[in-house]
Amino acid sequence: MSKIAFIGGGNMSSCIFDGIKRAHKDADDIYVSGPHLEKLAKFADKKAKITTSNVEAAKESDIIFLGVKPQMLTSVLQELKDNGIDFSAKILVSMAAGFKIASIRRLTAAPYIVRIMPSTPAKIGLGITGIYFENGIDDKNKKLISSLLEPLGMLCRLNSEEGINAIGALAGSAPAFLYRFFEAVEHECIRYGFSQSDARKIVEQLGLGTSSMVIHNHETPISALREAVTSKGGTTYEGLQQMTAFKFEEMIEEVFKACMKKTHLFEEMF
C-alpha cells in the first residue's frame, strides 16, 4: 500500500480517510497534518500518524491529499516548496474548489496532479465524487487513486476541469439545497401542528421513500413519477401550480449558475 498523507483534517479528509481504512485493511501508513493536534485525535485513534508539520506529512508520503480550503492552499503549497519537498514522484490529490491544476503546478512543479470533488454523503458511503486525471497519470495510478475513493460511493470520471466545477455544484453543493427543502417541509409540519420529533420523522421518511422510488423505478423518467402523484385539479396539482408561479425551475437554474460563478471567481483568484 502506498504511503498516504492528508494535509488538513477536516470533514472531507475524514470521509476519505475512513473510506480508505474500511476498504484497505493494510492501510496503516497514513499521515494527517493540521495546526491543532487535539483536532486530529480521531485520526490517531484509528492508527494514523498525526503531526502539526505539513512538511513532515508530505515528505513521508507517496500520495498527498490536499484537504485545506482554497484560500489556504497557496500558502500550504508554498510552505512545502520552500522546505524542499520533492514532488517528482508524488501524486497530489486536490479537493479544493476553483484551484486549477495549473496553479498547483506553478507553486510546486509537481508532475502528477489529480483533482477530486467529493460530497458530504460520502461519510456514509453514499456520496458522489468527481475525479479528473491529467494525461500524465498512468493507468496503474488511476486505478490506485480510484480504489481509494470508491468506498465513498459513486465515482464520476470527468474529462475536464470544468467538469470538476460542474460536479462541485451539482453534487457537492446540492445536498445543502435539498437540506434547505427538508428544513422548509419540517417547518411546515410543525406549523400544521406536528411535534418536532414527528416532523423530523416525516421528513426522514419523505426523503428516503422518494429517493427509493427514483432508484427502484430506474426506467421511469422522474417527470413520470411526479405525474403519478398529480391528479388534474387536485391538491398536488395546486401545489405544483404555485411552484410554477414562483418560477421554480428558473430559480434552480440560477442557484447552480451562482455556484459556478463563484467557482470561476476562485479560479481567477488563484
From TrEMBL:
<protein>
    <recommendedName>
        <fullName>Pyrroline-5-carboxylate reductase</fullName>
        <ecNumber>1.5.1.2</ecNumber>
    </recommendedName>
</protein>
<dbReference type="GO" id="GO:0055129">
    <property type="term" value="P:L-proline biosynthetic process"/>
</dbReference>
<dbReference type="GO" id="GO:0005737">
    <property type="term" value="C:cytoplasm"/>
</dbReference>
<feature type="domain" description="Pyrroline-5-carboxylate reductase catalytic N-terminal">
    <location>
        <begin position="3"/>
        <end position="98"/>
    </location>
</feature>
<dbReference type="GO" id="GO:0004735">
    <property type="term" value="F:pyrroline-5-carboxylate reductase activity"/>
</dbReference>
<keyword id="KW-0521">NADP</keyword>
<comment type="pathway">
    <text>Amino-acid biosynthesis; L-proline biosynthesis; L-proline from L-glutamate 5-semialdehyde: step 1/1.</text>
</comment>
<keyword id="KW-0560">Oxidoreductase</keyword>
<comment type="similarity">
    <text>Belongs to the pyrroline-5-carboxylate reductase family.</text>
</comment>
<keyword id="KW-0963">Cytoplasm</keyword>
<keyword id="KW-0028">Amino-acid biosynthesis</keyword>
<feature type="domain" description="Pyrroline-5-carboxylate reductase dimerisation">
    <location>
        <begin position="161"/>
        <end position="263"/>
    </location>
</feature>
<keyword id="KW-0641">Proline biosynthesis</keyword>
<feature type="binding site">
    <location>
        <begin position="7"/>
        <end position="12"/>
    </location>
    <ligand>
        <name>NADP(+)</name>
    </ligand>
</feature>
<dbReference type="InterPro" id="IPR008927">
    <property type="entry name" value="6-PGluconate_DH-like_C_sf"/>
</dbReference>
<dbReference type="Pfam" id="PF14748">
    <property type="entry name" value="P5CR_dimer"/>
</dbReference>
<dbReference type="InterPro" id="IPR036291">
    <property type="entry name" value="NAD(P)-bd_dom_sf"/>
</dbReference>
<feature type="binding site">
    <location>
        <position position="54"/>
    </location>
    <ligand>
        <name>NADPH</name>
    </ligand>
</feature>
<dbReference type="InterPro" id="IPR000304">
    <property type="entry name" value="Pyrroline-COOH_reductase"/>
</dbReference>
<dbReference type="Pfam" id="PF03807">
    <property type="entry name" value="F420_oxidored"/>
</dbReference>
<dbReference type="InterPro" id="IPR029036">
    <property type="entry name" value="P5CR_dimer"/>
</dbReference>
<comment type="function">
    <text>Catalyzes the reduction of 1-pyrroline-5-carboxylate (PCA) to L-proline.</text>
</comment>
<dbReference type="InterPro" id="IPR028939">
    <property type="entry name" value="P5C_Rdtase_cat_N"/>
</dbReference>
